[in-house]
Design goal:
Strand content: 5-15%
Strand order of the largest sheet: 1-3-2
Number of strands: 6
Largest sheet: 3 strands, antiparallel
Helix content: 40-55%
Radius of gyration: 18 Å
Shape: globular
Structural class: mainly alpha
Length: 212
């Protein structure tokens, strides 16, 4: 993969992670490539950012004192906050169906057959699945008449949102770095206790990706 293509993907707002593109992450972990990418991003007011262990990368604003950049960032933050409520409900459903009690993280795997079997044999989980189908994020599941199709629709939505990845025809789903990123951003917003989702964003407070 060329550095040019990597830079374009970052500028388009993609979260490049180990789950979806391990080779690209390995390349971005190279200090020389990292410097090259940072130099290119600097021309458009961006910089290369990552989580602490560098298992996913993204482009973030280099200077949030610029009004246009700060406003664009605020709008993106609001869209993330909007998706978090149904996302937390989805997390609750699949963690219970998988007999777990903590948030999944990047690389965590779910087997469709196991989730389906558990939900079909648990009325409470089946009700949770039905309730999720009424959320706007999962509206494609509303018309589904059975648990199999409804669950499949929810998981497909998560794949389309970039939060899950599947490469085995829907048999196995893997949590992506974008999922971790969304949770990290949400927790930072909550910690800042800003009901207006940070009307004024300080660069040292939060380091966020550019999304086109």
């Amino acid at each position: 993969m060329s550095d040019t293509l990597l830079i374009r993907r970052l500028m388009m707002g993609e979260i490049i992670c180990m789950v979806t593109d391990e080779a690209a992450v390995d390349r971005l972990q190279n200090p020389a490539i990292m410097d090259h990418v940072n130099t290119a991003l600097a021309y458009v007011g961006m910089k290369l950012s990552s989580n602490e262990v560098k298992s996913y990368f993204y482009a973030s604003y280099a200077d949030l004192s610029k009004t246009a950049d700060a406003q664009h960032l605020k709008q993106r933050l609001q869209s993330i906050v909007k998706i978090m409520h149904p996302l937390f409900q989805f997390i609750e459903l699949i963690t219970k169906a998988n007999n777990e009690d903590s948030y999944p993280t990047q690389g965590h795997t779910y087997l469709f057959s196991q989730l389906l079997m558990t939900i079909e044999n648990n009325d409470a989980l089946a009700d949770m699945l039905t309730n999720l189908s009424n959320k706007s994020l999962f509206k494609s599941a509303r018309a589904k008449s059975n648990t199999n199709d409804r669950l499949r629709s929810l998981l497909t939505t998560m794949v389309n949102e970039g939060l899950l990845y599947t490469s085995e025809e829907g048999l196995r789903y893997v949590v992506t770095g974008q999922f971790d990123y969304y949770l990290s951003i949400y927790h930072q917003i909550v910690a800042l206790d800003s009901p207006e989702v940070m009307a004024e964003v300080a660069e040292e407070q939060v380091d966020l990706a550019l999304f086109a």
